[in-house]
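Materials and Methods. Structural model of Putative gluconeogenesis factor. The 339-residue sequence of Putative gluconeogenesis factor from Ligilactobacillus salitolerans was retrieved and submitted for structure prediction as follows.
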Amino acid sequence: MKEHNGSNQRPKIVVIGGGTGLPVVLSGLRTQNADITAVVTVADDGGSSGVIRDYINVVPPGDIRNVLVALSDIPQIYKEIFQYRFDTKDSFFSGHAIGNLVIAALSEMNGDDIFLAVQKLAQLMRVDGKVYPAASVPLELNAEFSDGTHLAGEAEITAAEKHIKRIWVTGNDGEKPAARPEVIQAIMEADQIVLGPGSLFTSILPNLMIENVGRAVCETQAEVVYICNIMTQKGETEKFTDADHVRVLNQHLKHRFVDTVLVNTEKVPQNYLDHQKYNEILNQVKYDFKGLREQDCRVISDDFLELRDQGVFHNGAKVVEELIRLAGRPHSWVADRYN
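The predicted structure was written out as tokens:
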């Protein structure tokens, strides 16, 4: 593994994932002196993204939209317009975010090249960093469950509420998808690869299951840091410990590629979480230090908890502080910490 590239250069940090966790980390990293690349999942088939994907066969734009906003330097009012979601009474546009429609339009204007469309939009939005779709075609998520059954589609997989044995992705034509060379180059040249926070089977693994992405993450000399979820998720990680999360990642890539894991050890207050508002969230992920060390990874445990709106989130500032500290240290640094 390589050491940090020197105090006079910005550390190159590649963040891979999707969902609501990715923008939290990116927003924090944007305030630091880091060279950021976001590799964003394109396997979402729900909500506005799913409808747009089905109608015009474009990469689902929702996660890309949120990442662009997180890294954008445009005035706040423009961000609010870009993020605005039409009300349900607007029957034709109901549920669609303006940004999703803009991304779909730019893709069509550029010969259905979503990668080029996102690069042009990133310029318009004065994005500080790079935003790369994990693949240039919509991905279909496939799962095999422990009972031997199979399902396709992110929404269907999580709704089944079965124990997931493994997942894989296919292109919309059934072929094996591949990431653009720019994605692989960013991973190979990085000082640090950050996975998460995000849904294990539907936000993180779909990216790593793209063959050349998974291979690059295993072969890069960058330190691979996994930000473990604080809570378990219905239909995905029920009863999981933090070690179970890492074990699933390593098993899918058939390699112990996770170098460092950030885990929250602060207790979530009983009865704080609004389970109706956050209906996919179950219980707090259990801490298993011994199991984590059995996966040959460095463990950094701390209070990364943020409570707001009766929900449980990562404290973005504390997570980013730890990431920047890691990015500035040689890999030989011993960083195990205990509460």
